[in-house]
Write a structure and sequence with these properties.
Mean pLDDT: 91
Helix content: 25-40%
Oligomer: single chain
Distance between the termini: 37 Å
Number of strands: 12
Strand order of the largest sheet: 2-1-3-4-5
Length: 233
């Protein structure tokens, strides 16, 4: 499941986008103004942005330029617009959009473009095992080992660990982690995430001497960083 932000000042278009994305099994947060989206981007995380060109405050072009200038993550962006001239397409792509879709939106095309941009931006590993330092994760069995030694995790703990490892060095908001790991209908106590984080920190012993550090960032969320061993620095 991925987390998508959709920006459009037309509530009917937003409703169509929201229903389409949720039907794909993904999470979507909608915004009717550029400023509202930019405020959220300063403290939250998304995997894909859908941005309308014509907006009441900032233009979609300005939004894309802000994202490219202010966010470290190379966030994939699809521009949605009634503009369909060749020069408009060139302008949108030159500003930093990764794809360009004409309105009125067609549901199946929107699904296909979202799937394609995720495939390009977040390719799945060819094998169902992945390695992070001395940690080896088996995605099919949902097992994890450190230096060959098995560590027992509950399914949700494994999902949370995988999310953190796949986003090394990226500050992840609490909302992003909860929606990505627990799913679309996030109706769980906020302490649930903290409890799972505490369990992971203890079970995986995420300390610099084991190559990783799991940090809480007050008012935002959590960040997992890879740390070089002293003899490697």
């Amino acid at each position: 499941m991925i987390r998508i932000a959709a920006l459009d000042d037309d509530p009917h278009q937003l409703a169509l986008v929201k229903s389409t994305i949720e039907a794909m099994g993904h999470c979507v947060v909608t915004f009717e103004s550029a400023e509202a989206l930019l405020r959220q981007l300063r403290r939250d995380n998304f995997d894909v942005l859908l941005v309308d060109w014509e907006l009441p405050d900032l233009s979609g072009i300005e939004v894309i330029q802000w994202v490219r200038s202010n966010l470290e993550q190379a966030l994939p962006i699809i521009m949605l617009t009634h503009r369909n001239s060749e020069q408009d397409v060139v302008t949108g792509l030159s500003a930093g959009a990764d794809d360009y879709m004409h309105k009125p939106l067609r549901v199946e095309e929107l699904k296909a473009r979202i799937t394609a941009i995720c495939r390009r931006s977040y390719p799945k590993p060819a094998v169902r095992k992945t390695q992070f330092g001395s940690f080896a994760l088996d995605l099919d069995l949902k097992t994890i080992q450190f230096a060959g030694e098995a560590i027992t995790l509950k399914d949700r703990e494994f999902d949370l660990a995988l999310c953190l490892f796949r986003n090394l060095g990226r500050l992840l908001s609490r909302q992003y982690l909860m929606e990505t790991v627990w799913g679309l209908a996030v109706d769980i106590p906020t302490r649930t995430l903290d409890t799972h984080i505490s369990a992971l920190r203890s079970k995986l012993q995420l300390r610099p001497e084991r190559g990783f550090r799991l940090s809480a960032v007050y008012g935002h969320g959590y960040r997992l960083d890879e740390i070089l061993s002293p003899h490697l620095e």
